[in-house]
Amino acid sequence: MRIFRPGLVLALTFFAFTAAAVDEPAPLRGYSAAAARAERDWETRFRAIPDTRNLHDYMQRLSARPHHVGSAYDKDNAEWILARFRSWGLDAKIESFDVLFPTPRERAVELLRPARFVARLQEPAVAVDPTSSQQTEQLPTYNAYSRDGDVTGRLVYVNYGVPEDYEQLDRLGISVKGAIVIARYGASWRGIKPKVAAEHGAIGCLIYSDPKEDGYSQGEVFPKGPYRPPDGVQRGSVMDMPVYPGDPLTPGVGATPGATRLKLEEAKTITRIPVLPISYADAQPLLAALSGPVAPAPWRGALPITYHVGPGPAEVHLKVKSNWDIRRLYNVIFTIPGSTYPDEWIIRGNHHDAWVNGADDPVSGANVLMEEARGLAELLKQGWKPKRTIVYCVWDGEEEGLLGSTEWAEEHAEDLRRHAAVYINSDANSRGFLSMSGSHTLEKFMNGVARDITDPEKNISVWKRLQAHEIAEASNKQEVRNRSDLRLGALGSGSDYTAFLDHLGVASLNLSYGGEDGGGIYHSIYDDFYWYTHFDDTTFVYGRALAQTIGTAVLRLSDAEVLPYEFNDFSETVGRYVQEIEKLARDRRQQALDRNRQIDDGVFTAIADPQRTYVPPQRQPVPPFLNFAPLENGLAALTRTAERYEKALSRAAADGGSALARASLREINAKLVETERMLTLPDGLPGRPWFKHQIYAPGFYTGYGVKTIPAVREAIEQNQWKEAEEQIVRVGKVLENIGETIDAAAGGLENAANRP
Amino acid sequence: MRIFRPGLVLALTFFAFTAAAVDEPAPLRGYSAAAARAERDWETRFRAIPDTRNLHDYMQRLSARPHHVGSAYDKDNAEWILARFRSWGLDAKIESFDVLFPTPRERAVELLRPARFVARLQEPAVAVDPTSSQQTEQLPTYNAYSRDGDVTGRLVYVNYGVPEDYEQLDRLGISVKGAIVIARYGASWRGIKPKVAAEHGAIGCLIYSDPKEDGYSQGEVFPKGPYRPPDGVQRGSVMDMPVYPGDPLTPGVGATPGATRLKLEEAKTITRIPVLPISYADAQPLLAALSGPVAPAPWRGALPITYHVGPGPAEVHLKVKSNWDIRRLYNVIFTIPGSTYPDEWIIRGNHHDAWVNGADDPVSGANVLMEEARGLAELLKQGWKPKRTIVYCVWDGEEEGLLGSTEWAEEHAEDLRRHAAVYINSDANSRGFLSMSGSHTLEKFMNGVARDITDPEKNISVWKRLQAHEIAEASNKQEVRNRSDLRLGALGSGSDYTAFLDHLGVASLNLSYGGEDGGGIYHSIYDDFYWYTHFDDTTFVYGRALAQTIGTAVLRLSDAEVLPYEFNDFSETVGRYVQEIEKLARDRRQQALDRNRQIDDGVFTAIADPQRTYVPPQRQPVPPFLNFAPLENGLAALTRTAERYEKALSRAAADGGSALARASLREINAKLVETERMLTLPDGLPGRPWFKHQIYAPGFYTGYGVKTIPAVREAIEQNQWKEAEEQIVRVGKVLENIGETIDAAAGGLENAANRP
Fold first, then answer.
1. Is this prediction's ipTM beyond 0.90?
2. Rounded to an integer, what distance in angstroms lies between the CA atom of residue B571 and that of residue B576?
């Protein structure tokens, strides 16, 4: 495949007569010229292998029956995947853990007054969809790790149930104390909703899918279209994952048979109040029975009712009782030992378990991983010998709380801290644009890979297409046009990279395609083979593209002489985060000043409608100015070393990379692997020591949503000014420390270049 | 009434021992100290008069039966108002005009396929609401001045039906040629929708009220709450009023019995295609029968369906036939001759006709006008003698196209151009904050009035409450806090000030209270006494506040020695408009450049989903840089004279205003009256000569929505670059001309101050 690059065209204009100039491929970061030629050849061979027919067949097999963790078909799938890997000649095994996994025994949602209504809590089978009728094997609609409870109370509608929504309720003079709240899905990860509700005194929580975000307002509903039908329910975990993911009973250690386990009542990540998810068909009678203030305009969904906040008169009975069993999960793992640097591991994962049939989530990613595995096996047969060790992982128990990946990462923490260079994750895959998130030390690397993959719908690279998309969306189009790299998104949580990145400090990527197809079958029985092959990447061409993308990345990482981390993009990105946080502090100060001024001037009282309850906000302490110098100094040190490293690598790669042959690559690579580890601190983030990374974390009050430089940012958001200043010092030191490690790697390269 | 003012408190701190300092009221613009004392006394007496019981009773009487123009009760109301005025001793009369007023004879909306559905086109009576059952007198649901038509075609949903919506349809590859469009109310005045649809080749137009903007999404529907019920319909005129309002057959002249009339087919303001308004109950089956692309997210309303754009498969039959009758309308007018300046007129108006019972629109304003009239009559009996002539007008035929006010203004154009100083309008009134729009030469005056009116719900002035509201809403709160005057909104169209301001150049104000009560009965049978007394200003205290506000304004204008125009606020406001327009030109240039760049780079093609129709935009000519210097120079001249005038008036008002006694006030006032006239040009705006004002006009493609400096702004918006440059020159000259007139007034005041 030829990729159009303006620079290359220019070169051709002048050197068209030298055949070498025409055939010479673009250099590869971390490769000598000769190694790059060989590498490009292997990569081209690899990309020819993935086959859409296989992706189709794997999906059909894996999603044929419900396969949640602990189910018969979950184990069956793991064994089938193991057998496939072995049949391709790969050294695969199953690694099991025994984890707490509650499944519902009793569930009830009833409206007691002003009228009686019993929620159905059941997704009906659809005639055209063969697997939707497998009721005996389907997990009921529920939120895993909801505590048991049997509560009755007045209902209050809390919009998305995020902290700002409760501020709005305060203005309306409405308390949820002793009430059952009903929140809609969206705006935060679902586990945040019961957590914040409990903090405000609620005794129960319902979460429903509003058709505005997830139903007919988006498009025709299943089976006529891909969107959520009236009785469709989003299952999901409500474990307090921002505290720690994985088995609630074994935080920080692998849930092996002999592991020390907490008692159930000691587990911090189980909700404080009972929670159930419901469909919009079940939610409508409850919401319609509310009175009280009309919901603020942004709170209104697409149901054909007037949305009121309550409280009451609707009174609701909510009951949840689970079997709190320990169940076995089955991770499937294979390893390809490295030929040159066996102690540097490139790890790749995708989960295989689903809430029900899970054709989209996760099989549309798991089938891609399998097809990559088959491709690697093919290359091995053709004589390919990766320099680094490659570890492929098909995780179990992701849906409940990243169980399989977290327990495995905790169990192998010591080895992983020593050896893991990069973790590449995928999950559900769709049709459209490449989505790239991850560690910004891999930003330039990942851009290079994306330039080499052809979009299956357009005769251009997926990089070019993504750039076009970002130009079209951007407010500052010139910035996108002029920057050599497209930006990686920062990783929060929500898939299996979490333990690697956040707990262990392993540079990570999360990759997928999407943006052209929508749908509303997430975590429902309708996420199945029928749905996927009618409404998503129906020809599996984007599944193939993802296998080509990730396979290329795995090859390029495992064969490089110097691991292709890059620190200029990283330091520039951290600089943006620092600026954001400084602006956040300034804005919060200004907002507090301004709000206090309005309170003092009687503005809120003057504008309040006396016919409506309105509680003016209270005066707030004005945030002080913070000393950001330690962060700025740390950033300056990082920026300087990033530039030094880049110069050193350029020099080492000059003249076809002759200096690389002289370099102590083992030591340099070891330093490079260490860099991401330097971004962690052993005692982690304030109040949640499991999360050790100081640049990325899922937000304590957003869940999946990322908070960058989280210790500082969240302290500011929560008005913890003293803590913010302390964390600024800690993070500043972290930036200095990674700078020192980068310096060491740069020194290694410089030495090689200086030697004759 | 005492108004809290920080400055006054400061004064009290130092001078509390001098009784004079305590009792001396704030000076009044255009008044000597002695005259101000007398004036404040009359105003205080006036404000004690308006009585909520009377407002209640007038409303009950006027809205007791349907009273559209041409109906029996419309004439009956006019005669009853006339009798009231005369009973109070006022010199009142009826002035009639004979106007074209179509009423429907046949109406049909039918879905022919894919299923058959016949629209009801009828608002049902509601048991608790006594007047809702007066069906024999109610006008059917229709859009007046829709041409007759009987068409069948495929349906296309066009969102609000404004020009940008058709650009979006172009991108989707959808044409409305030969189709019937269905647009929702909102985003533009209704008459724009059939106009733009016809420009794009549609053969018919339906307009419906979506529950998102006007129905259950806003709040509980009538009769449980104030919002539009499923079968409620918004009647309304679709006359092309941005071309000219008033009788379509007599543009520019009064529709007297002997006036020369156009033939019906010559009238430019009748729609080119048939139009009918429908309820959301009638719209839902039509919208649900559409397929084609799912409507873009901002196009989706609150009906429980997936909104598609079409075209078809829905096929619709639309039929409208009207009786095209000439009907008589009845304006009620009284005059109080001025004692000192009888040739300077202060005019005040509100219409009395309604679409049906119209308790809110217009009776909640008409009753206020009546109570003001009673108050003025009381003062006259007590010996008050206004210096200027006061003319009170109760208009007929406003709803159909400002018929009564336009014909009267056209008939009396010569006198009005000579004598009219200020026109003050009101229309429907509600509960909440003062709403002030109008000529910015009256901004400072109106702020002064608002400071003297007490809000009936809060113990503060309506000015203070409005300021609090604007501080709360503003992005730049300091600007609102620091500016001595709250800004007047600019006037577009939609009520009876239009002929005065836009055609004749009479400085105008439009005033009301609102913002605390919502509702969805606009132009329906449910806008009636039951609704208003259950859901709006139920105790009529804001009706009383409006009578106090406008009555105070009328007194203060009619008694002033120097008319209280002010030109600094005006020139500052025009300066803002000039900046807006320069930014508009820059932005449009940048947008065109950027879009062309994206087209050249293939961005639109690269991001398009091949499974969906997408038509990339065409390359556009890049707008040139424009020469704004003539506008800037005109503005500079205006600004200079505004400052000169302000200094001159301050000097004349010094020492209790002794210089005023020596001034040639008649000449100075005549110059001041002339200023707003200087803002008009005899040949009006490009393509619509009836609209002569060069600062304010209803937008050609927005309808009621204002376009400031319209000739320049609309030329830029429509890419008429040559025309834009020509209009910049014309408007620049207009600003110079008003500057010269202000200079003359300033000179008169300076002469008086310089004389001993």
1. yes
2. 9
